[in-house]
Amino acid sequence: MFALFSFLKINEYGKKIIMCYYIYAYYSMKLADKKCVPCEVKIPPMKEDEIQKHLSYLSLAWKAVDSRKIACEFKLKNFKEAIRFVNDIAEVAELEGHHPDIFISYNKVRIELLTHCINGLSENDFILAAKIENLFKKLKK
Fold first, then answer.
1. Whole-angstrom Cα distance, residue 128 to residue 31?
2. Are 48 and 41 in contact (CB under 8 A)?
3. Fewest beta carbons within 10 Å, which of 14, 30, 58, 117?
4. CB-side neighbour CA atoms (13 Å) of 87
5. Closest to 95 (Cα-Cα) out of 124, 75, 70
6. DSSP SS3 for 75
7. Is the pLDDT of residue 9 over 80?
């Protein structure tokens, strides 16, 4: 996503000119609108303050577990709806190239997210969490 900014400037000859800049606005996007990026370079896992900041961007009850992963439990109508939800998550996870740990117990689905290559949390985990929230909200309509 790009944003166009323009402003009026007067050049050294006293002429008015319009200056335009395109600025890449990736960080101002909603998490669910972002795309997971491959973990090719060893980046450090998020620190606790970053984790808490990113948790605040999510609308459901995600919790940090040992500052290493985030988890959320979803309650659905029945087993069939739980499986449908898990299948929807699998499709999104494949598209994003980022895969959660999924646990199913009749009508409950527990999702755990962490970036395995760094054994901790990265923005990818929060991006996928936001996309999973959207799937759940759509399913509950």
1. 8
2. no
3. 14
4. 7
5. 124
6. strand
7. no
What single letter denotes the amino acid at residue 37?
V
Long-range contacts of 101-106 (CB under 8 A, 24+ apart): 104/79, 106/78, 106/79, 106/82
Q: Output 31 or 104, whichever has higher pLDDT.
A: 104
Higher pLDDT, residue 141 or 73 = 73
* Tokens of residue 82, six digits: 């739980």
Give the pLDDT mean for 10-20: 60
All structural domains of the chain, each given as residue ranges with its CATH number in brackets, are 38-139 (3.30.1360.20)
Quote the pLDDT of residue 129.
97
Nearest to 133 by CA among 70, 45, 68, 49: 70
Q: Are 46 and 58 in contact (CB under 8 A)?
A: no
